[in-house]
Amino acid sequence: MAEHDCYHCGLPIANHDEDKFKTVILGQQRDMCCPGCLAVAEAIVSNGLEDYYQFRTEPAKKSDDGILETIDKLKVYDDPSLQEEFVFDEGQDKQIQLTLEGITCAACGWLIEKQLSKVEGIKQVAVNVQERRALVTWSPLQIKLSQILSTLKRIGYVGSPFHPDEHEASYKREQKTFLKKLGLAGIMTMQVMMLMTGLYFDWFGAIELETRQYFYWVALTLTTPVVLYSGSTFYIGAAKALSAKTVNMDVPVTLAIFGTYIAGIRSTVLEQGEVYFESICMFIFLLLLSRFLEHRSRHRAAQISANMMQYVPVSATKLMSDGSVTECLAKQLRINDVVLVKPGETIPIDGVVTEGHASVDESMLTGEFNPVRKENNSVVYGGTVCQDGSLSIIVTQTLKNALVNQIVKLQASAMASKPKAAQIADNFSRYFVTAVLMISALTYGFWSYQGSDDAFWITISVLVATCPCALGLATPSALTCAMAKLNKQGILLKRADALEQITGIDTIALDKTGTLTQGKFTISNAWYADGVDSDTALSIARALESRSEHPIAKAFTENNTLGDDSASDYTVYKVVNFTVAPGGGICGEINDTMFSMGSAAFCVHESQQEFIEDYPSANVYLTVKGRIMAAFEVRDTLRADTQETLDILAKSHRLTVLSGDTQKNVDSLTASLPIETAKGGLTPELKYEAVQAMQQAGAKVMMMGDGINDAPVLASADVAIAVGNATDVAKTAADVILLGDQLLSVPTLISTSHQVKKKIRQNIGWSVGYNVLILPFAVSGLLSPWMAVVGMSLSSIIVVTNSTRLLSK
To answer: Residue 532: phi, psi to the nearest 5?
Structure first.
């Protein structure tokens, strides 16, 4: 580049512009030809992409649209209005799911995590190699999203906000590239093998040396595009690792390929020595084939849970205040908008039915194919299908916070917590690669010292045979398949290591109401204090319970009070200063008078305790200033599958019921169940203490609950499960959420956790055992390069295939 050429585009600078456009690049002041080149150059430098100028092979085009587009795109992601769609708030921090392009193996995930974790402001990075996604949490006060994406680009990966459609397009692009490289390698491998096999076995007869050399040159020509194009996947992975001052499994692969290729070129040019062009082609083809099969299998597993948003329609029919309807995008809907869903249509967003009734297929969420009847005040979810009837639905969650989006987000969070087996395998894999490189160097030194002509080829065999690709796939492939299987059955894991902990559980503690029972309460009996009007008391009770989300509230708020159809005629009272005491009851002010409702211990004054005996089976009291106004007996029934579920669980676990209901009711309900211990009358604190006591005695406890009062004990258990229509507080505290309403999902969860543990052990045992077994044969020279190629590839394929069997069990 001449002295008076533009540093950016290389075009001559007009004399009158020499002093106009200048900026500092790579520590020196550079001249630019125009404002456009100056703006692009300054954008490149300010975004940390200055190395572009150091490593470019030719000047950029004037106005460099490609670079400018990249920089502008990254800056756009800092726009708060754009982030509203895909960035979640985590307290004062921000969190995003990114689709990653360029990932080839588990080491790529480790490399990204290691590099991003060094960046100031990034709080957490978790890469899911199987789904090609990353979950990143950062402080917006310290770093911008565009800077995070720039950092990813600098280490060779392209990150973009996760969107199911774009994620699928990314997968298809990578698959297309895989097929091109695999197809080229396959075609060339057949040609080279046919040619070289003919020479090895003398199928061409007694040919002259010149003809043999001609065949070598033809084989070299056919091998070159395989090495330079098809094998580029491995070199890029090795370069990324080395640039981060570490090693991965692509490093020995790259050494083996280029070592064999360069040795073949040397032998062909000097017309002496052996060539192994067919081994190079076969090595690249088989390794690409194993990675392609891994690519397809992990996509098959991931798409079950990762692409749930594909069920949600793009558009929605919005019902306007004047009664007219209009079409709009589902993502434009806001809380309190009203949408109309017709028979056969998919519900576009989460909400509550305000008008109409219909059967809704919720199988995409729960895995249960029996339609659920929806009517006024029923909760519906985006992606479920309205089978018959029309529904008017008031929006309660934007699409960003809809249940299907929360599931996708929770799945990403789950993979952020790696089980110990995965951590051990990742660390062992890196140490193993280092050991392989050292053993290869020692092998070469030993055979060279022995004067062997095959020292180089023996070393190549060691590099190829012991490549720990299968070890890197052992744990993540099994976990991804297991989580996909559970999602399909309506079981959502919030952390992957919960599967590992479930295998050690020996005690299961269960809440009663809403967990063992249906949570569909009815008032079977009622008593009223002298001088209290029953209609007034029921109206006050209904008003108070209408503000509660406890399952008992439905016994009062729905029109089923004592089976009286006149319930809808009761007076409607306004409640203010409403409060909830988890595990106790509720309080609220009506017409300047404070009322309480709940258990006797919570709302009945000590001076009134003697009157409790007048209501022997009552379990809910309505009081004013501690004095009893009314008492109610509220009953619930067992779930249809409770008996069957507990019979299965009792075979291998100790079962305990921890309930806030009276001991009498608890004993009555659990009498026919295989429960070892049933405790009633427990506050949230007492439930927490009960689980703590079991843990201190050496028990590994799984807690199952659904209410606000279960949150403390769920958080303290070794594994926590939120059952059925659990409250948001319970779901937050839980490790596993049952999206369906079937308790039989729990034995399935436990069974799958044991299957995963078995698969991981099989995978690690096979991959480590294979490498340990094959190493002596490779070091001793008994294993030729092509044998090592076949064995290594088959090892990876076996591990992936073994993991995918979880999907069919």
So the answer is: -100, 125
Rounded CA gap, 736 and 575, in Å? Answer: 35
Q: Is the pLDDT score of 497 beyond 70?
A: yes
Tokens of 56: 């470019």
> How do strand 736-738 and strand 719-722 relate by DSSP bridges?
parallel
**What are 395's strand-pairing partners?**
351
597/127 Cα distance (integer angstroms):
49
Max mean pLDDT range (16-25, 176-185, 413-422):
176-185
Contact 53, 43 (CB under 8 A): no
**CA dist., res. 374 & res. 361, Å (int):** 10
Label the pairing between strands 654-658 and 677-679. parallel
- The structure tokens 């030719």 sit at 58
Q: How many CA atoms lie within 13 A of 151 on its CB side?
A: 21
Mean pLDDT of the chain: 77
Please give the structure tokens belonging to residue 125: 């990075």
Residue with tokens 């009314």, as numbered in its chain: 630
What are the strands, taking DSSP E only, across 559-609?
576-581, 585-590, 593-598
Give the residue carrying structure tokens 């008017």.
392
Segment among 441-445, 463-467, 568-572 with least mean pLDDT: 568-572
Q: At what angle do helices 785-804 and 455-465 cross, to 10 degrees?
A: 0
Q: Which amino acid is at 608?
A: Q
- Share of residues in the chain with pLDDT > 90 (%): 7
C-beta atoms surrounding 698 within 10 Å: 8
678, containing H or E segment = strand 677-679
State the residue for tokens 């297991």: 482
Tell me if 497 sits within 8 A of 413, measured CB to CB: no
Q: State the Cα–Cα distance between residues 260 and 58, nearest whole angstrom.
A: 32
**227 close to 257: Cβ distance less than 8 angstroms:** yes
| Residue found by looking up tokens 């249906």 in the block | 518
CA-wise closest residue to 755 among 809, 700, 801, 799: 809
Cα–Cα distance, 349 to 807 (Å, whole number): 29
Q: How far is CA 471 from CA 420, 427, 464, 648, in A?
A: 15, 11, 14, 35
**Model pTM?**
0.54
Closest Cα partner for 330 from 416, 400, 263, 264?
400
Token pair 């065949």 in the structure block, residue: 215
**What pLDDT is attached to residue 518?**
78
Residue pair 799/477 in contact (Cβ under 8 Å)? The answer is: yes
Pair 140, 94: CB distance under 8 Å:
yes
**Cβ atoms of residues 51 and 150 within 8 Å:** no
What is d(CA 196, CA 192) in angstroms, rounded to the nearest whole number? 6
| Element housing 268 (H / E) | helix 250-270
What is the Cα–Cα distance from 54 to 27, expressed in whole angstroms? 11
Instruction: Count Cα atoms within 13 angstroms, Cβ side, for 346.
Output: 15
Residues comprising the chain, all counted: 809
pLDDT of 585 strictly over 70? yes
Amino acid identity for residue 699 in this structure: A
Q: How far apart are CA 207 and CA 199, in angstroms?
A: 9
Half-sphere exposure of residue 797, counting CA atoms within 13 Å on the CB side? 13
Q: Tens digits of per-residue pLDDT, 224-265?
A: 999 999 888 888 878 877 777 777 777 877 887 888 888 888
Type and span of the H or E element at 254: helix 250-270
Query: Among 551, 560, 629, which residue's Cα sits nearest to residue 596?
Result: 629
Averaged pLDDT, 76-97: 75
Q: How many Å separate Cα 624 from the centre of its chain?
A: 50
Residues 6 or more apart in contact with residue 545 via CB below 8 angstroms: 552, 553, 555, 556, 557, 586, 597
Whether the CB-CB separation of 543 and 570 falls below 8 Å is answered with no
Residue in 807, 741, 737 with CA at minimum distance from that of residue 369: 741
Task: Please name the residue that has the structure tokens 């005996």.
Answer: 613
Q: How far apart are CA 184 and CA 62, in angstroms?
A: 36
- At 474, is the secondary structure helix, strand, or coil? helix
